[in-house]
Structure formats: structure tokens, C-alpha cells
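Hello,

Following up on my earlier ticket. Below are the two sequence lines again, exactly as submitted.
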Amino acid sequence: MHKLFARQLAKATTPSGEVDLDELGRLIGSAYDQADHDRRRTDRSISLMIEELDTLNRGLEKLVEVRTKALRDSETQLKAQNLRFEAAVNNMPQALLMFDRDRQLVICNERYRLMYGLSREGVQPGCTLRGLLEQRKATGTFPGDIDQYLTEMFTALDAGTTMAKLVELPDGRIIAVLNHPMSDGGWVATHDDITDRQRAEQRIAHMARHDALTDLPNRLLFRERLAETLAAVSRGSKLAVLFLDLDHFKDVNDTLGHPMGDELLKMVAARLRHCVRDVDTVARVGGDEFAIIQTGIEEPLDTATLARRIGEAVRAPYDLAGHAVVVDTSIGIAMSPHDGTEPDGLLKAADMALYGAKADGRGTYRFFEAAMDMRMKARRELEIALRRALAAGQFELHYQPLVNVDSKRITGCEALLRWNHPERGMIPPAEFIPVAEEIGLIVPLGEWVLRKACLDAASWPDDIKVAVNLSPIQVTNQNLVPIVVSALAAAGLPARRLEVEITESVLMHNTETNTATLHRLRELGVHISMDDFGTGYSSLSYLRKFPFDKIKIDRSFISGLPGDNESIAIVRAVAGLAANLNMTATAEGVETAEQLETIRALGCVEMQGYLFSRPVPPSQIMLLLEPQRRKLAKSA
Amino acid sequence: MRTHQLSWSATHGWRAPGANYASADLVLYFGLRSALADGARYQELRAMFGNAHVVGCSTGGQIRNDDVDDEIAAVALRFDRTRIALACEAVPAPSHSRACGEAIGRRLAADDLAGIFVLSDGLNVNGSELVAGVTGVIGPTIPLTGGLAGDGAKFEETLVGADGAPKRGQVAAVGFYGSSIRIGHGSAGGWDEFGPRRRITRSTGNVLYELDGKPALDLYERYLGEEDARGLPGTALLFPLLIRDPVQPDQDVVRTVLAIDRTARSMTFAGDVPEGWAAQLMRGNFDRLAAGAAVAARQARSGLGSACDQNGLAVLVSCIGRRLLMGQRIVDEVEAAGAQLGAKIPRLGFYSYGEISPHGAAGVCQLHNQTMTVTAFTEAA
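Thanks for your patience. The regenerated structure is below:
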């Protein structure tokens, strides 16, 4: 009997032993219901579980699918990445090699093969560096000893350091090789063809130290060489530094043009090189300035000989596209150790010596002397004093009358600048005007002269002009016309009473702008005189460039009168020319009655000179003008 | 020690074989809430056993030896060499569970304390916290066994009485003292894990909201089907929830549902359901559940050592879920347990809302659910 039925039967049996069939039926029915319920529940839960597990399974499958796709995608990306890597490696300008820890080739790009002319078959992953070097030896692209190279390289790599090497190939190419150790025991090598770069660098280095026009060393290299050579001098031998420039080189540029000037410089450079020994240095240190280091000197005479030889070489005529050109040179010489043992001191000494040579009239050479240093110092002092003088009111104007040779009447007075130095007394213009021009003081100084002269002249009789000298620098200065207008206005002086004197050099440079400035002055009513005619180039063409009101014949022609025939001829010609061009011819520096008679006879209209009056202070000029003023007043 | 079993039914009243009731030290009684609620049965027992502590609770059915039925089951015990003490504490809300456990521990703690048997309110308590409260005071080595009171399959109200009429919100505990008492205990489930492993993704204390990001109640309703879902929360016991700390995967715990919230779609369990733990549904096979009960009884008997041949008593606390599932076949499990314990150890017990016993593997006392737990008492000669 089933255990459960036995229990049900026992439960349904009354204490009296009778079986309660209704109770037994209920118990049995209930047990069936419970069993059915449990079966349904079990079925349901199992099918739900299967469903759930199935869903989970699908989820997992989906996940696997997604992961697989991601894996495939990253594989594709990896491939693309590899392709890009390969493209990058093969298109880099350097050759690239990578070796593993077993010293076998892993990666090699095309550039390496092409750089050394190796076959594709010969360069494969797995081959050794020795194998590659042997192939290069065969193609003639490995210059050294293979064993030695490998030993050197592996020593560096084993020590964890990079081996860097410049290799010059038999065909002239220069290759920069880097062997760089990697953390895994292998190494990466790059080979860079730096031939062009190397040449460019050499070229640039050359250019930095050489003059592009003549290919001579420039100032920088010259100084380096001088320092080097001086180091040798200090061990016993002597050397000389020669500084030279071409006299009036600027005129060549001005007249023939810069290309011709450049051509001349190249020819001079070639001649200079010719004059010195190979061990000596010739450098171009400025526009037309050259410098030479002479070594192996026994005595100063050796250098003097060289200087003379250079002078002769430079002076020999040049043929510049058919133009025969002659230039001269001034040379300054400093000796070491006598004049200094330091480059700077020596260069300064040579420069002073050159200055001295030029002061001596150019076309010559001068050795440095201690006195030059003194003179330079004096000049510096003059400069400093000059800068102070204007503000300190140390300048004054003296006037020298211009006189009509027939009527003996004063027609005008030339203003002449005087510097009343507190210690040195009157300093002549010839001494300080060039310095003022050089240091730029001439512009404010010239303006002061203009204003002062106009003011002084305003108190003179109305028919007396005042003549003011203009420096070429003043004429070139853009402010000249406004300054003149302002000076006239401030003094209340009519423009017709102002006469400006210029030298022909004003028309030699910046001709067009300077001519335009003169025309504008002329339009104001100012008279323009050509001063010192005959001293410079005396080219008559300057007279054509501008219609001057007056030509002043230089005193050097007058001093020869009346005896010197040549002077007579020149004075007559100029006076005649002036008459024809409707200009007044004025003779400067007339000192004797004979001279006066002569110039009148030769056609000069006006004279100036000690015969009538030396330059006098403003107060005295009033005395000279007094008779005329009275006469004027009377006739009025 | 001597035992005298009694039973009560509406038809027959008390049926009490044996005499000398007045000398009993302790009376345990179990019955349906409907039978105990008026306190009349307690008064009757009180009158019968004037010197004894009378301790009982409401249940989901009684075990009397090889029978399972709804009559009141009681036993009077007289110890020869063992002292006992009773502690009773109120537990007004589940949040007081740990404090309540600690109070009981303090009341019963003594150098010769040999074990504690506890009966607790089955709905208003967090059993895990209660157990932790007691063991926190008496230490982990003294056996703590017992169970949570039941209310059939209704889950409305449970009662516990300790020398008084049974009331809701109470915890009663009997402490056993001395060197003679032997307490053997065993606990086993016999449920089969089934279906996918899930993860507790949202919970607070013993309230479970989500498994794998979906409402837990949805899952239960789906598995129960319309027929059984109407019986929630009781029917949730048909699919116990096995939970497992991923850090200690060998110490798994089975949880019983106490209540559900159809609005919040949440389920309240008799113990904690920590977030992040693994969870798996279980289902019962009659034969394996009965075999589980046998395992628990064998463990309890072996725990008695040499005193297993003495006269004694086994208190069986089995989960209401087992009875719900097995129906009339529930007798299989009590028979299986009885066969292991032998003739000298009569059985008394009840179907509960939670079982308290040291864990079989770890030995640490825990709240169990869905198990059969057996506590056997004898006194050494």
C-alpha cells in the first residue's frame, strides 16, 4: 500500500475501526489536486526557466556576435593601421631599419635599399646587419671595415647608448647614421642623406664669413683671423694690419653706376690678393674698405714695401666696359706687437693711420704714430665742444662786402661763420665745418646762420643783399625751403635780398631733388650763386643744370693775376660764359689794385676781397654801409 | 529529563496522557493564531503547570511525532540537573530587532549558559538582526536555536507568549544552564536551485526591489502564474530565494518572503537581501525535501554525543513553505526526521516563518528560511 494512502486510510478510520469513506474520498481528492497543482506549477516553472535561459542564451549569442564584429572591426583597423605604417615608413626621407634582440632584421624600408643600391631579394626580414654591410661593400656604398664598424656599434648598443656617425660614401654623399637601442634588446637604425644640408650649411657658414661680392673674408672672419694670428705673434713673430680704402670711390659709383663700382671692387680685390702671400689675409671690411694681415715680417720696411706694391697695383688703370678708370688708395698701417697686441686696439690704430694717410692728401700710406691718437682725441674733443657751442652762443657772423667793380658800390655782404671758442679763441671754418657736417650739426648751425644773417641784413639799406653759404647737406635736407621762408619772415627781409651760395658738389649728388629745392628758392625770389667755381670738377655742365644768378670765381685763379696767363684765360672764359648766360661773374680774393684792374678788364662785374674789406663784425659792416645809406636817402 | 506531550482540538479539548504535571519546569506549546489568540489555552496550561515557564507561539501547523496537523501541540519538560531561565522582550518594529536580541543576550548571559531556544514574532522582526543581537552578547559558540512564529499562509499577525497570553511583537527566549544539558542541532533545506543566476541590483535591508534591474515581484508573479500569485506573499515560499555573497560564495542563505508591496513592486524577506549579492530561485522536490529533514535530524542527534540514548525531546521547526508545497506529503519529512532521532526522543514542532540555528558549514548561528531545523535536548546521565 502506498504510504500516503495508508496515512489517508488511517486518518479516515474512526476510533471504532470504521472507515469514513467520505473523509477518505476527500483526502484522496485533495491529494490528487495537490499533485496536479504541483505538476502544473512544475511545468510552468520549468518552461519559464527554459524561456528565460533561452533569452539569456540569445543575449549571449548576440553578445558573442557583437564582440566578434568588434574583433573583426579592430582587425580591419589594424590592417589599415599597418598599411598606413608601411606607407609612412616607406615614404619617410630617411632609411629605416629595425633589428630584434637576435640581431635579425625585422623592418627595412625602401629608402634603405635605394640609398645603397641593394636588391629586393637581398634585404629580407631575418637577414643580419653583417649580411647587409657585405652587400653594401659589393655595391661600393660602405666605406669602412665591417668588423670594426660592428664592434663599435654593438659596444655602444650594449651600453644602452645611441651610436651616431657621419659616413662619407665613396660617391661623395654624406649619410648621418643613428643606431638607437630599444628596450627589448633590438635596435632601430636611421640613415639620413644630409649631403645637401651639409653643403648648404657649409655655404651658409662661408657666407657668414665672406663678402658676397668679392668672396674675400669679411670683417667677422678678418677679426677672427687677426685674433688667431695675434696669438701666434705673441710667440715671437711680428704682423702688420693694413687698412685701405679707395680714394673717391663714391665718384665712380655716381658717374658710372653701381654695377661698375662693384666690378671695380672685384678687380681691386683680385689685385690685392695678388699682392700678398697665400698665408696673408685680404678682407673686404666695408664698402670700399679692405684690410690685410701681413705675417712673417722682419722689419717695418717689409710692410712699407707691401704698401707701396699695393698702391701701385691699385693705381694701375682699370678697364670697366670700355671706361678707363683710375683710382687711388690710402693705406693705414699698424704693427704688432709695437702698436698693440689686441685685435681691437690694432684695428683702431690701423684706422687712425688710414685717417692720417687721407689727411695727408690721399694716395699714400702711413704707419700708425702715437700722435695720431692724440689728433683723434683732439678731434673728439672738438666734436664735443662743437655740440655745445651753438647752445652756448659761441658762434658769430662776420660779413665781407661784395663790390661792383665799376661803381665801387657795395652790392651785398657775404656772411662768414666764426666760432669764438672760449679757450682756443677764433677757430676758422675750415677746421670745424667738415666736423659739423660729419656729426650732423651743420643743419641746426646752418639754420642759425640763415636766421642771423637775415636779421642783420634787415637793418641794412634796401639795395644791399646778404649772401649765405649753404652746405650740400643743408640743401639735401627737406626742411631748407620752410626754414628760409621762416627766416625771411622772422626778419622781415624781402627774398630778393637773400643770396645763397652753393658749391658744385650740391649738383653732383641727389641732383634732381637738390635742383628742385633750388628752383623753389628761386621762385621765392632768392638769388642763387655758384661758389668757388673752378676748384672741383669745374664741369661746365653744372652751369647748365641750373640757371645761377652769379658765378663766384675761386680765389686760386685770382691770386695768379695779373701775371699768370693760364689764370687770365680761365677768368676771361668764365666771365665771358657768365655774361652769355646772363649771370654775374664775381671774382673772389681780390687783394691788389692790379688784380682789380685785371678782372675788370677780363669781364668780371663784381669783386670781393681784402682790397676792399676783410670780413668784419656786424657793427663794422654798418659803418661801411653808412655812406651808401646816406646816398640812398639823399637820392630818395 | 522527562517529557509529557499534550494536544488540544476544538472537538476534544485537551488530551493529556501522563501525570504529575505540577513538577514540570518548562512548557512549550504551538498552535494556529485562531486557536491561541484569546489566551484561553495559555490560561489552561498555566493552571495545569503551576511551576513551569509556559512559552509558545502561533504557527503554520504543528508537528507531533510523525503527524502534522492544526491541533495545538504542547510538551511539558522536567529537567533533572539543568536550570532554565526565561527572557521576554518586546520588538515594536523590525528596526528594534538587534537591540531586542542584545537585551535577551544580556538577560540570559551567564558563565554556565549552555544554549538558548528562542521564539520570535514572525512578521515584525528582522530575524538576521535579532540573531546578530543575541550572539553579539553571548558569543558565537553557544548554540542559539528556535524559530519565528507563523500565521498559516496569511502573513497577517503572529503571536508569542512567555508566561502570559500570546501577543504580537514579542520575543521569548529560554536559556539552559549547567554542564548536564546536551543540545544537538541540525539544519537542512533540500531545495534545488534552478533557473538563471541573478544579481540583487536594488535592495534596502530586508526589502528587495530589483533583480537584474527588473522588479523582483514581477519575476515571482510570472513564475507563480495567476493561480498561485493570488496567494502572495505565502505562495512566494514555493520558490525560495537562495542568496550568496560573491565574496564568500560557499556560505549561501535561503530567504523567506514575509510581505509584498504591489505598488512598489517590492518583496520583504525575513532577513537581509544585500545589494550586489547573487540570487537564484529554488524549487522543491518532495523526496529531496524529506531527505533534507533527515539530514537535519541526523546532525542534531550526532550533536548529542553519548547522551543520544537518554530520554529527551526534539523540537522541529520547519518552514511553512515546505508545508505549502508538499501538502499531505509533508508527513514524509517528519517521518524522515523521526527515523533519524529514534524512539527515545519524541518530536514536537511547528511550521514557521523562519528558522534559527547554527549554519551547518560555518557553525555560526543564523536565521534560516525554508529549512527544517532540529534542536534535540537530553541530559547527560
